[in-house]
């Protein structure tokens, strides 16, 4: 029996409305610090948010080896972890960068002799195509653009290891600032400047392994390289990209930090999401004058949900845990 015409029209209208709603929304999830030998309870929770993109922010495995066979075995174990394997089948795009433990050595910097070898293994894990430019360049930085209705969101992932100058720690194992040290290297700086100057995106997510904005804690951070941190902020002022959002990992905590940058229409928000498998539960507080909201010391991931409304772009930024728990959430218009 044929369905009545009004039912067919109603079904068609519902399909078109659903498709329109999907086009006007974009969900990007991200996280870091994932040890493949520990329980990984979050993949199903993240999948339930129906992300269009998953971003690895480093320490995607704890490789910590110069032996490529060891690193490959750990990457393979993560790829075959049942919940993550299912997650990969559900998420349209999985992208990422690295930090020190998947780079191959804790606190690894530009002097690490196996970085070119390990770059290929990291890109294998991210299932980068064999002919990808990332396989021919030094460093695994990359950029991607996604649509939200008539708007664009650009994701710029930096490599904070391949070119990083050396940091030293004192007798108390506290990192000492390197006043003239660099993080990105001149080739990556030139690439980043071009990505920002030539961009017509309405929002720009810039991500790397270590934190960009916080300055007060004693661990790895851009603030240990004050000249490089200032160069990054000056580049944002010079190129004034729309809607800057920073994402970072490494710290085994989650938090949001906010800083007004001259030349930008709105303060820059940084979301640190670190602790997919082993957060620093003993860290119940540390100084950060730029923090907005709480310090999260439980397993969590970060989420951006973009949506276009009447030619304006909005984003809800949140830190989330198991069973749908929302530790903190902010909604803002992207300017």
TrEMBL record:
Task: State the UniProt keywords alphabetically.
Answer: Signal
Instruction: Supply the Gene3D superfamilies for this chain.
Output: PhoD-like phosphatase (3.60.21.70)
Q: Is Signal one of the keywords? A: yes
Occurrences of domain PhoD-like phosphatase metallophosphatase (ranges)? 32-284
Q: Which N-terminal stretch is annotated as signal sequence?
A: 1-21
The residues that cross the membrane are: none
Keyword hit for Manganese:
no
Entry protein name: Alkaline phosphatase D family protein
| Record InterPro entries | Metallo-depent_PP-like (IPR029052), PhoD-like_MPP (IPR018946), PhoD-like_sf (IPR038607)
């Amino acid at each position: 029996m044929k369905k009545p015409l009004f039912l067919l029209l109603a079904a068609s209208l519902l399909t078109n409305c659903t498709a329109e709603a999907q086009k006007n929304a974009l969900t990007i999830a991200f996280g870091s610090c994932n040890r493949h030998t520990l329980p990984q309870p979050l993949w199903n929770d993240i999948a339930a948010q129906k992300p269009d993109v998953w971003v690895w922010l480093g320490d995607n495995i704890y490789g910590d080896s110069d032996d490529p066979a060891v690193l490959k075995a750990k990457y393979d174990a993560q790829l075959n972890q049942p919940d993550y394997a299912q997650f990969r089948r559900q998420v349209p795009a999985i992208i990422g960068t690295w930090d020190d433990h998947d780079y191959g050595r804790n606190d690894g910097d530009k002097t690490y002799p196996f970085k070119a070898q390990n770059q290929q293994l990291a890109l294998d894990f991210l299932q980068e195509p064999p002919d990808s430019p990332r396989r021919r360049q030094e460093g695994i930085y990359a950029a991607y653009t996604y649509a939200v209705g008539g708007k664009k969101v650009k994701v710029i992932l930096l490599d904070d290891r391949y070119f990083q100058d050396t940091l030293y720690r004192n007798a108390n194992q506290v990192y000492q600032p390197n006043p003239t040290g660099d993080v990105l290297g001149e080739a990556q700086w030139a690439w980043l400047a071009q990505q920002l100057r030539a961009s017509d995106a309405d929002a720009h997510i810039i991500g790397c392994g270590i934190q960009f904005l916080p300055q007060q804690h004693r661990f790895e951070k851009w603030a240990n390289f004050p000249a490089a941190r200032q160069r990054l902020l000056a580049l944002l002022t010079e190129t004034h990209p729309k809607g800057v959002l920073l994402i970072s990992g490494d710290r085994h905590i989650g938090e949001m930090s906010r800083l007004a940058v001259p030349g930008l229409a709105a303060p820059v928000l940084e979301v640190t999401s670190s602790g997919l498998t082993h957060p620093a539960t003993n860290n119940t507080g540390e100084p950060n004058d730029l923090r907005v909201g709480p310090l999260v010391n439980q397993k969590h991931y970060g989420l951006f949900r973009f949506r276009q409304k009447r030619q304006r772009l909005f984003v809800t930024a949140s830190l989330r845990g198991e069973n749908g728990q929302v530790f903190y959430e902010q909604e803002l218009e992207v300017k």
